[in-house]
Amino acid sequence: MSEGVQRQRQQQDQQGHGQVSDHDQGSAGSPGSGPGVDTSGLFGVSVDCVEAVHELYSYLDGELTEVRREEIRVHLDWCGPCGGAAQFEEDLRRVIANRCKDRVPQSLIDRVASAISEESKQDDARN
After folding, report:
1. Residue 6 belongs to a domain
2. Residue 55: inside a domain
3. Are 47 and 74 in contact (CB under 8 A)?
4. Considering its fold, how many domains does the chain have in total?
5. Three-state SS for 105?
6. How confident is the model over 17-75, as pLDDT tens digits?
7. How close are the terminal C-alpha atoms of the chain, in Å?
8. How far is CA 126 from each of CA 70, 84, 112, 120, rounded to the nearest angstrom?
9. Strand, coil or helix: what is 101?
């Protein structure tokens, strides 16, 4: 990667995600095109940071069309801040899913079933 490209990516990362910045609005005027470069011919429809962040959860949940998912994926691949946010959310979901696999102890299940059975018997006796 050339020194100029590395410097440009560092500047983009420092600007923060979720904000429309110079890397979102190039001089060519198309969102997501970078400074003065129109990438729509290379990558198709451009997505800016605001759009990518707005649709991040739909992207992670698989709720987007294949075309829209690909548009967002291209942005996340090329935008460090947005890609980092997406990776963080994906990692967080994985941690939460792994931690929420706790099972209810059998003794608690037995106590609840017993209480329900006892309540049902008492209700039958009253009627």
Report:
1. no
2. yes
3. yes
4. 1
5. coil
6. 444 444 444 333 334 444 334 445 555 568 889 999 999 999 999 999 999 999 999 99
7. 81
8. 64, 63, 21, 10
9. coil
Q: Give Cα separations from 109 to 106, 112, 121, 122 (angstroms).
A: 5, 5, 18, 20
Residue 28 near residue 36 (C-beta atoms within 8 A)? yes
Amino acid at 14: Q
Q: What are the tokens at 37?
A: 């470069």
Q: What is the DSSP string of 25-40?
A: B-TT--BT--TT---H
Q: Evaluate whether 15 touches 21 at the Cβ level (below 8 Å).
A: yes
Asked if the structure places residue 92 within a domain, the reply is yes
Residue 3 lies in a domain: no
Q: Which range of residues forms the domain containing residue 37?
A: 12-126
Q: How would you label 73-96 residue by residue, b for 16+ Cβ within 10 Å and e otherwise?
A: bbbbebbbbbbebbeeeeeeeeee
Contact 53, 72 (CB under 8 A): no
